[in-house]
Amino acid sequence: MRALRVHELGEPKDVLRLEEVPVPEPAPGQIVVRVLATAVNFPDALLCRGVYQEKPPLPFTPGVELCGEVVALGEGVTTVAEGDRVIGSPVLPRGSFAEYAPMEIGRVFPAPPALTDTEAAALFIGYQTGWFALHRRAGLREGETVLVHAAAGGVGSAAVQLAKAAGARVIGVVGGAAKAEYARALGADIVVDRHTEDFVSVVKEATDGRGADVVYDPVGGESYTRSTKCIAFEGRIVVVGFASGTIPTPGLNHALVKNYSLLGLHWGLYNKRNPALVARCHEELTALADRGLVKPAVSEVLALEELPDGVQRLADGSTVGRLVAVPHADR
């Protein structure tokens, strides 16, 4: 089978090589899927650079999210059958940037019937992250105002749709006119181009000075720091990631005098500590997809050989929505 592999660490466009490798065999408790589609995530770029929290041995295949067709069952697997369409995360170092990939059965979920293969491939990580951030951590309520940073990106676009599905008003922050147009199409009520506007002023004006009830921040750096200037009394800032490359050092005295909460979200921990909640979240997301309230915004569908460039562009911040690859040339 064909797979993209990393033999030395560096920029994705430089280190991802298309090779022929054996089709994996499932270990006990695993399945092997034919990868119907695989979504590109920021961790894929971090894996190539060697700065992700998980560091698989070289050589490895990136790709942390997929939609696949079950083709082989490992010992003890009884909850799926060959031919089932599923989504979830593969088992590194054999990720989903390949024609076939292994998966642990505990991280395998039915693909929502309402979504295509490419859409379903992008549902797992971004939408689970958004659901846990907004509902589990922030306790989002109908009618509240949510400020979403990187609203045209992968996790940001999911947060926009989930907040709207919950009855919230969404203010999306993006970088550039094209991304602003994309965020509006996603359903954001107000869109701020950070290149030309000050989101702090926009939030204050839109809320009559009250501020945003919830801030969804996968960016960090200056985005976090300025968000503290427009957070509401008893508001909640959810720290999701640091795509800016800068980890903020918050002044906790400011949180005290303004009565707001700082909430961390490391979604991956729920897979280990509370997998039943992850399964429940998947059921909720499937129901939302069935009702047409959430739908991954797939902006590009790539061939496997186009992925190195796609991962690089995502890492450089020049993409919108979700990039998805279809590894098999016959699809």
Automatic annotation (TrEMBL):
Pfam families: ADH_N, ADH_zinc_N
Domain of life: Bacteria
GO function term, MF aspect, one: zinc ion binding
Classification via SUPFAM superfamilies: GroES-like (SSF50129), NAD(P)-binding Rossmann-fold domains (SSF51735)
Enoyl reductase (ER) domain location: 13-325
PANTHER family membership: QUINONE OXIDOREDUCTASE-LIKE PROTEIN 2 (PTHR43677:SF4), SHORT-CHAIN DEHYDROGENASE/REDUCTASE (PTHR43677)
Name of the protein this chain belongs to: Alcohol dehydrogenase
